[in-house]
Amino acid sequence: MRISIFGTGYVGLVTGACLAEVGNHVLCMDIDPDKVDALKRGEIPIFEPGLESLARRNHEAGRLRFTTQADDAVRHGEILFIAVGTPSDVDGSADLRAVLSVSRDIGRTLTESQLVVTKSTVPVGTADRVREAIRQTQAEPFRPRIASNPEFLKEGAAIKDFMAPDRIVIGVDDPHSEDQLRHLYAPFNRNREKIVSMDIASAELTKYAANAMLATKISFMNELANIAENVGADIERVRIGIGSDPRIGYHFIYPGVGYGGSCFPKDIRALARTAIDHGYPAHILQAVETVNQQQKQRLFEKIRRHFDSDLSGRTIALWGLAFKPETDDMREAPSRVLMEALWEAGAKVRAHDPRALDETRRIYGERVDLTLCSDPYEVLAGADALAVITEWKAYWSPDFEVIRDRLKQPVIFDGRNIYDPRDLAALGFQHEGIGRSSRVAAATS
Fold first, then answer.
1. Are 323 and 334 contacting, i.e. CB atoms less than 8 angstroms apart?
2. What are residue 6's DSSP bridge partners?
């Protein structure tokens, strides 16, 4: 099939490369000429495992192309995907300006035979607004066919998620549109029925509902972790105890320093805003957001308390800057909250991340209180303590003797609970985790 994708961000690039991989002819459009030129040279602006080789292979084969011309993209595609960003607006709602701008561009050239699909995460009612935006610029009047096809891609595993999806949600209001999307996704739907077809409004809400449920589990576990600290329990044992219940399960019940990234924060705010706009105050969603913002301060509070509220002149080593492993994405990352709080308190930061150093430089530039190191042990030199923010596999089994020898004090603030406090106590470390009571560690060591 001939597919056009508007937007070459995370979702657009992954979608384009994966659809091209199964034989479709994909044209990706972006308004940034420098970005398009780089993509034509095989340079991928984001890190996602497997994406660069996939995109290059299909570009060289002629199945994946890039353009800055919206009219060319509209004329090319049987199905036109809108995959542009929907960041948070000032009131928390989803900013749909890019979506509607693309829709108006599409309207100038669209024909009755083409299907327009919103791939971006958008609130309920956006399909109607897309249809109206298209009508504003139509040369000949007809009712555009619109569908919703939300993405469920995990950063760090997006290629696998697309090529072997758990489910493919499509929201349609006519049989022809459903047939087109079923035909497009047939290569990904062979071993069992994965397509879940529904009305457009329900499809738009499904994406938000999924992210809201996962974010709620994270914030709930973080709240339990904070309770565990106060009552002298160990949240890791609690996690295992409740996760063994199949009604709860082990997924997304790991306490830590809060969630970040491009999806959960903005989607929780957008869904809560949608609820308010329709006369319903979403108390749970508001609490999820509040707990998450407080949790991002948690590690800084532990560090400040350890140093008797005086961090002036201290140096803190950080392992992990990306909001999660296997990505360089630092949007709303807990590391940013911690670093900025440390700087405000007069401390310096030495940091390592396997993938996000360039992104950190882009965000913060050069500053005297930030040293970025390509080796995780290099950040320890002259540091008063080590804080682990992102659970990259490279940090799971480090050389603790080297860590102890290089730190001024043998202190580790473990924001992801990847180390056992008893093991570290035996090695002479003071360990501060999330919801891991020192009393429990002492009693069982």
1. yes
2. 29, 82
Strands, E, within 321-410: which ranges? 348-352, 370-372, 385-388
Residues 189, 195 contacting (CB under 8 angstroms): yes
C-beta of residue 373 within 8 angstroms of C-beta of residue 350:
yes
pTM of the predicted model as reported, rounded to 2 decimal places: 0.94
What's the CA gap between 258 and 332, in Å, rounded? 10
CA 435, CA 255: separation in Å to the nearest integer?
A: 8
Tell me, yes or no, if 263 is annotated catalytic: yes
Q: Where would I find the beta strands (DSSP E) of 120-199?
A: 145-148, 168-171, 195-198
> Which residue, among 282, 277, 156, 279, has the nearest Cα to 213 in the 3D structure?
282
426 φ, ψ (degrees, to nearest 5): -65, -25
Tell me: do 186 and 252 sit in the same domain. Answer: no
HSE-CB at 241 with a 13 A cutoff on CA atoms is 8
Domain of residue 58 covers 2-198
Same domain, 186 and 38: yes
Same domain flag for 137 and 240: no
Residues 287, 419: one domain? yes
Q: What is the pLDDT of residues 335-362, one digit of tens each?
A: 999 999 999 999 999 999 999 999 999 9
What percent of the chain stands above pLDDT 90?
97
pLDDT in tens, 174-184: 999 999 999 99
Q: How many whole angstroms from its chain centre is CA 170?
A: 22
